[in-house]
Amino acid sequence: PAPLIALRDVSQVFHTKRGDVPAVRDVSLSVGAGDVLCLVGESGCGKTTTARIAAGLTAPSAGTVEFDGVDLASMDSRRRHEFRRSVQFVHQDPYASLNPIRSIFGTLSAPLRRHGLAKSKAQAWEQSKELLERVDLTPAENFLPKYPHQLSGGQRQRVAVARSLTLSPKLMIADEATSMLDVSIRVGVLRTLTRLRKELDVGFIFITHDLAIARYFGTGGKIAVMYLGRIVEYGDTHEVIDNPRHPYTKALLAAVPEIDPDQRHAHDTGLRSVDIPSLTDLPSGCSFHPRCPLYREGDCDSELPLLSSVESGREVACHVVAEQAEHVDGEAPR
Ligand code: SF4
Q1: Which of 232, 297, 318, 324 to mutate to test the pocket of ligand 1 (most atoms within 8 A of CB)?
Q2: NCBIfam families given for it (predicted)?
Q3: Distance from C-alpha of 299 to C-alpha of 58, rounded to nearest angstrom
């Protein structure tokens, strides 16, 4: 069967006063029903733009997006409407994403009533209650009359998750959904999201800059590491995190502090330069070359490395890693 969502050679260029910004470059990825894909990388690497393209919120400058095998660009209005219902976003900021003058019941019941899923106020109340229970906000009837300012950050984010579930989505996109929460609250919200992912059998695109969170949430799924608009490494989440191959993924992992607070100390990421190059003035060849500890003059600064298979299920965009894989296998990777 066709994947739920498939991006093929998608690029996005934003035209700004400072020049063209190629925010996403030649990205291909897919997510099936019940699958999870973690998109990771530093801020500005293109992960949010990629997710917005997947959700149909931004049309790509080039490439195609297919939902259930149908090209978004060719969808008639009925199909498009269906698609919009099927994809829901959970944003980073629970403070900004909820209407401050709407009660929690108002927030949850509005889409239920608008889409004819609740025929009466009483039915909307029952369904809203069930939604809050799903996200572990109990007793739900105590929360329904409240307003966002009466809730904590974690509770608001749970309401935002509940709202994203109102229309029974097929694909959920969580964009740094826990990064603004206190660490103590974050774990609880992550646990709820993980349970929902398993229960609901929806496809999930989970965006985070935090690899420890990707490892926790992305168990059994795939991970795509992005750098300056491109995917530089792709594979099984645990395998990539436990055994990274691309020098950038290695540096990202080295920068993650130990989970044990007693072990926390500054890590040497091995990067040659701390400055991230600008998207308006991309380095030649491999965009990572000004920072890369494996940099090799000649090819790294002149030739763009494309994603290639370096072992079963693992793709890496790096001349040196591809060459090492070739050497080990005795044959060229695909
Ligand atoms: Fe580093 Fe060269 Fe590989 Fe780019 S292609 S990641 S510069 S070794």
Answers
A1: 318
A2: oligo_HPY
A3: 34
19-31 β-sheet, strand order: 19-31, 5-16, 62-67, 70-71
* Residue 45 falls inside a structural domain: yes
Question: Which domain, by its residues, includes 218?
Answer: 5-101+147-329
- In order, the DSSP letters of 16-37 are ETTEEEEEEEEEEEEE-TT-EE
Nearest to 140 by CA among 149, 151, 129: 129
Which of 228, 294, 326 for a ligand 1 pocket mutation test, highest count of atoms within 8 Å of Cβ? 294
Is the beta carbon of 300 within 6 A of some atom in ligand 1?
yes
Using CA atoms, how far apart are residues 177 and 157, in angstroms rounded to an integer? 8
Residue 51 near residue 205, CB atoms below 8 Å = yes
Residue 256 lies in a domain: yes
Type of residue at 54:
A
- For residue 77, the domain's CATH number is 3.40.50.300
Give pLDDT tens digits for 155-201: 999 999 999 999 999 999 999 888 888 888 888 889 999 999 889 88
Q: Residue 256 and residue 168: Cα distance in Å, rounded?
A: 35
**Overall number of domains in the chain:** 1
- Residue 164 located in a structural domain: yes
Residue 46 lies in a domain: yes
Tens-place pLDDT, residues 188-240: 889 999 999 889 889 999 999 889 899 989 989 999 999 999 999 999 999 99
